[in-house]
Amino acid sequence: MAVFDYILLIKNKGKGLRRRIFEKKPVHILHIGKTGGTAVKSVLKTHLNSGFYKIVLHRHDTNFRDIPRGERTVFFLRDPLQRFVSSLQQATPGTTEVLLTLERR
User: Fold this and answer.
1) Are 61 and 91 part of one and the same domain?
2) Could you tell me if 22 and 69 lie in one domain?
3) Which is nearest to 24 in space by CA: 63, 45, 55?
4) 0.70 exceeded by the pTM?
5) Do 12 and 61 lie in a common domain?
6) How far apart (Å, rounded) are the C-alpha atoms in residues 102 and 68?
7) Whole-number Å distance between alpha carbons of 4 and 59
C-alpha cells in the first residue's frame, strides 16, 4: 500500500483514527528544585509544540502521581552534596569558605 492509500484510508475511517495517528504525544518535564529546571524550562518554552512530541512543563509542586500513567516523563537530578552546599550558600550568605572545606572532604 502506498502512502497515498494510507491517507485515503485514514480519511475514510473518520476523525478518531486520524487524531490517534497525527496527535502529538505529551512529554512531561518535572521541575525538581535546585536541579537546573528553570534554565531547561526557559529553553524549552520556545519548542513546546515542535517536533514529534508536545512538551508539557510542570511546576515544583508536581510529582509522578500527577502525570497520567504511561506518559513519558523527564526530570533532572543533581549531586546531593552540591545541592546541599548550594542551598546553604543561598540561605546563609558568607558561609562559602566553610562549605568549600566540606565539599573537598
Assistant:
1) no
2) yes
3) 55
4) no
5) yes
6) 41
7) 43
Q: What is the tens place of the pLDDT at every residue in 28-75? A: 999 888 788 888 889 999 888 888 889 999 998 998 999 999 999 999
Backbone angles phi, psi at 62, to 5 degrees: -90, 140
Are residues 58 and 44 part of one domain? Answer: yes
* Domain count within the chain: 2
Q: Are residues 15 and 59 in the same domain?
A: yes
Alpha-carbon span 10 to 3, nearest angstrom = 11
Could you tell me which residues are beta bridge partners of residue 29? 57, 74
Domain extent, residue 90, equals 78-105
- What average pLDDT does the segment 7-15 reach? 49
Instruction: Provide the total of helices (H) and of strands (E) in the chain, helices listed first.
Output: 5, 3
Band of residue 27 on the pLDDT scale cut at 50, 70, 90: very high
Q: Do 89 and 105 share a structural domain?
A: yes
How many of the other CB atoms lie within 10 Å of CB of 19? 10
